Amino acid sequence: MKELTSSEIRQMFLDFFAEHGHKIEPSASLVPVDDPTLLWINSGVATMKKYFDGSVVPENPRLTSSQKSIRTNDIENVGKTARHHTLFEMLGNFSVGDYFKKEVIPWAWELLTSDQWFGLDPEKLYITVYPKDQETRKIWESLGVQDSHIYEDEDNFWDIGQGPSGPDSEIFYDRGQEMNNISEDDPENYPGGENERYLEVWNIVFSQFNHTPEDTYEPLPHKNIDTGMGLERMVSIFQHAKTNFETDLFLPLIKQTESFSDRKQYGQNDADDVSFKVIADHIRAITFAIGDGALPSNVGRGYVIRRLIRRAVVNGKKLGINHAFLYEMVPTVGKIMASYYPEVGKNADYIASVIKSEEERFNATLNDGLALLNQVIATAKEAKSGQLDGPTAFKLYDTYGFPVELTREYAADAGLTVDEDGFQAKMKKQQTRARNARSSAKSMGVQSDLWTDFKEDSEYVGYQNLVVDDAKVLALAQGAAIATDAQPGDELAEVIFDRTPFYAEMGGQVADTGEMIDNHGEVVGRIVDVQHAPNGQNLHSIKLEKALKQGARYKLVVDRARHLKIEKNHTATHLLDQALRNVLGGHTQQAGSLVEQHYLRFDFNHFGSVTDKDLKKVEQMVNEQIWREIQIETVETDLNSAKEMGAIALFSEKYGDRVRVVKIGDFNTEFCGGDHVKNTNEIGLFKIVSEGGVGAGVRRIEAVTASDAFDLLHGKEQLLAQTAGLLKAPQEKEVPHKVELLLEQIKTLEQQNEALQSKLTAQQASDVFGHVQETKQGTLIASAVKVPGMQQLRQLADSWRQKALSDVLVLATTAGDKVNLLVAVSDDKVKAGVKAGDLIKAIAPAIGGGGGGRPNLAQAGGKNPAGIEKALQLALDYLNQ
């Protein structure tokens, strides 16, 4: 069998159908366009619906694609079976009212078995057909498929209700009983049965009926073809992998995960292997989903991404990985998929930053959540209740960010169930408070209605001071209830102070974090998040280390270093906003932003891509404002006065009568309630990391400032220095020239190598062509030669045909344990009935292979070099019949 990489298999599939007149459709975004019926693109045909329903007529009715797809309906099986994935690629060819069974079935067989293509052993392929579809069975039989390799199955009928439907034919590959999970005499041990021996590799759907509302099946006016071949499954065959995970699509990710875990190795423990597989699977789906514009959230696609990230993080914990690591795997995904999805590598920095942010948020409370979960599981097992109570499951979801699916999986691993009714009851109570709820994007608690009636004023003083010495606790809550005191433990305390230096998340700027200190100088608690209460006060979520009392006074200290970094990034977003307007035009509008400690993200409306030239102009313009050392002014005024100042407002925001305006000299004026530097020179440096589209008409820029920008540039400088060292370039500026010289040298060596191969082939031709044998059906030249492979055998055959040296030519060569066999027949002998294809089939078994081809030229491959002499003798015997 051929040794093929995943990229070679994908490209070979597409090339085959391109040669048969198909247009190669690019892999569409995982986020469906104009299709509200789908959460994700979940198959190749999902992107073709507009063609099959007739709403759009394709330029070419023959289409082929390798479509990335996401399915999460049975996510719990990922890692536990050989072939369950959340993200996978579906290879497919499609006919929109053009060809049908008589064309597609022979093509499928040719692609699978021809040595020019996949070259699979026909003896290892089995077919299933719909019992009433005898036409399909006869076509398979006409191709030489043995009756014993065709199974009839009532399930071979594709029908999803009203609409197009029809029989289908599935192709299975026999991996041998040694790969099976059941005994040889098990009744499920057949193609289509529940076993690991017979692997389904391709499904061909013959869409020929319309399933009517009356539940009848009427012939379609235009018959269609829809096929699906799982790339991951095909790769497992060519790479002799027991599961899809031991292939070049997943192993690099598994190996990288091993490097994060200092005590776990893949293949040593079944439970650990599940975690390795879950992580490798999920990071692929997460990376592609974010790259296609979806972002973590609590609804829809965003919830799927968040759930995948959290499942992967939890499985990392099982492997002993206690730090953010998923984001570091994004470049590896990019490298694996680079040949067909170069955009993943190009957007790797942005994708990684989104994942890292989400990981860090989840990790902030995950350890406490896991401790609680393990404690509850132990208690339930000890009490032999067999169930985790619903309120606890909800608490894990509400306070610690655990999706109930994760709790359910952990409980199942311990032989327990979850009280679903109790969980749903708590969830419904939360939903009644949705109007006042804050996002759980931070994996923190959700606001409850207990704060709705609290209207006492609280002052934010963080614009001037990052420390308040005597902040009074106006009100506090713990465990979703108002309290007069709070104790250290699993529950976070929620506190409103009369004054606070802590910024509450708003306008894209993340919340401040820091400490609360008592009058003895001891830390009482760590403030991990701040959101706005229903009536606007800053509501602090605090992980307590000591007891907390209402009415008591505490010192509040913001993490100053973190806060100053956020300030720099926030002011930089204003500079970036204005620079984009100046360079791209006034039509650009902010569509969202995120200001974190180590980076900033800025979304803006703009149709079309941003050129590298324009992006450099934007970056240069921002830095020029930084180096101008512009003083930042903030003004509180009425709404109309702010508008007269020319302040930029966001259409998505609602403003009150009094507004805060941030003015950066004569360069930019915007409505903003966030924190900013006092002078642009504090930002130091601004560097764009990535730019790309995140949706229809929406672009995203990710950038870094100050020390993070320096670190980025320093890393690139080190990379350049390393490259210069490898190239032995005395100065870094000589690197491009050295690379050019190296490329020219490689090109020259390749040309010399090709010339040498041609010369060696020509020398062998003179030796081989001198030995002509007489047979009953004409003259024969049959010999083993020493050439690299089939390409050189074809060159010898071309030379033989031009010189008309004999009637039949049989050549063989070896490369390691592989054998290539070629048969050529002159045109005269073809007319006389001697067929190259017949001859190759007669002699190929001697080398342990099979083959086929045209009447005048055929080829075969095998793995038995010792059989070459026998094959050559069989050719002589065949022609002497």
TrEMBL record:
The keyword Coiled coil applies. This is Alanine--tRNA ligase. Binds 1 zinc ion per subunit. The gene is alaS. PROSITE patterns: AA_TRNA_LIGASE_II_ALA. PANTHER family: ALANINE--TRNA LIGASE, CYTOPLASMIC (PTHR11777:SF9), ALANYL-TRNA SYNTHETASE (PTHR11777). Residues 739-766 form a coiled coil. Signal peptide: none annotated. NCBIfam families: alaS (TIGR00344). Consists of three domains; the N-terminal catalytic domain, the editing domain and the C-terminal C-Ala domain. The editing domain removes incorrectly charged amino acids, while the C-Ala domain, along with tRNA(Ala), serves as a bridge to cooperatively bring together the editing and aminoacylation centers thus stimulating deacylation of misacylated tRNAs. Its EC number is 6.1.1.7. Catalyzes the attachment of alanine to tRNA(Ala) in a two-step reaction: alanine is first activated by ATP to form Ala-AMP and then transferred to the acceptor end of tRNA(Ala). Also edits incorrectly charged Ser-tRNA(Ala) and Gly-tRNA(Ala) via its editing domain. It comes from Paucilactobacillus vaccinostercus DSM 20634. HAMAP family: Ala_tRNA_synth_B. GO terms for molecular function: alanine-tRNA ligase activity; aminoacyl-tRNA deacylase activity; ATP binding; catalytic activity, acting on a protein; transferase activity; tRNA binding; zinc ion binding. It is found in: Cytoplasm.
